[in-house]
Design brief:
Elements (H helix, E strand, L loop, with lengths): L1 H10 L4 E11 L1 H4 L8 E11 L8 E12 L9 E11 L6 E11 L8 E17 L2 E12 L5 E14 L4 E13 L13 E7 L2 E5 L4 E11 L8 E12 L1
Antiparallel strand pairs: 1-2, 1-13, 2-3, 3-4, 4-5, 5-6, 6-7, 7-8, 8-9, 9-10, 9-11, 10-12, 11-12, 12-13
């Protein structure tokens, strides 16, 4: 899937392009020390292109790749890595797109035998980009497949948003997602469970642009059932710097 996206990107003209490197310091231990052993830095890389000539049969839309490395390990080594790749395209005139997405990663723990995979997840859905005033939004409804031993087939809804403020001296952006997954993954740990579990994740962020390249800002990571099966809503703010490449 991601190789097809790269080929498409090389064939067609670019309407919009951005990439950024972000360094965040996550204060989750300061907020909730009982659940989080320490604060830590996180490095993000985001690459985004909008492609849509409207002239060819396969009309590629937005392409996005996001990577995240959490420095949660011993001596601030990388303890968790996550990536997400998505590509939109359409065959018709209305600007409603098919959206294909992949995500996956891994986590390293101490002791090492409890290290884990963030399972490969495959999603396909319909996206609709639109504007409200000066704000840009994209609404996406996915079918999501997670290949547990007992696979989970679910719906995932995601909303992306972006708004430039004060003549783009500041920016408000981010996304939120809601979805479900099977409680029973087909392993010994979850064998006695049944039904679906609800998940929520959001990452609103605000940036102040010092110049065309550098920004300072903050992101608030909000989780429900993402990090723990306990019925706890977690809020983890960060302080950050961003470099637009």
């Amino acid at each position: 899937m991601k190789f097809l996206a790269v080929i498409l990107l090389s064939l067609f003209s670019v309407e919009a392009f951005s990439q950024s490197l972000q360094l965040h310091y996550d204060f989750r231990h300061s907020i909730d020390p009982n659940r989080n052993p320490k604060n830590f830095p996180t490095l993000y890389f985001e690459y985004f292109k909008t492609l849509d000539t409207g002239k060819i049969f396969i009309k590629p839309g937005s392409f996005l790749i996001k990577t995240q490395a959490d420095f949660t390990g011993d001596q601030n080594n990388i303890g968790k890595y996550y990536m997400q790749v998505s590509q939109e395209f359409r065959f018709w005139k209305p600007k409603v797109f098919i959206d294909l997405q992949y995500s996956g990663g891994l986590g390293i723990t101490t002791p090492r035998q409890y290290s884990y995979y963030i399972l490969n997840t495959y999603s396909a859905g319909i996206s609709y980009p639109f504007k409200i005033g000066e704000a840009y939004l994209s609404s996406i409804l996915f079918y999501k497949y997670v290949p547990y031993t007992k696979p989970s087939n679910d719906f995932l809804y995601t909303m992306y948003f972006y708004h430039g403020l004060f003549h783009y001296k500041a920016e408000f952006a981010g996304d939120f997602s809601i979805w479900t997954e099977n409680r029973n993954h087909g392993d010994a740990t979850t064998a006695t469970l049944s039904g679906k579990r609800f998940y929520f994740f959001a990452e609103p962020q605000v940036w102040y642009n010092l110049n065309k390249r550098f920004s300072v800002g903050s992101k608030v990571n909000a989780y429900y059932h993402v990090n723990t099966t306990d019925n706890v809503f977690e809020i983890c703010p960060t302080a950050a710097i961003r470099w637009k490449l």
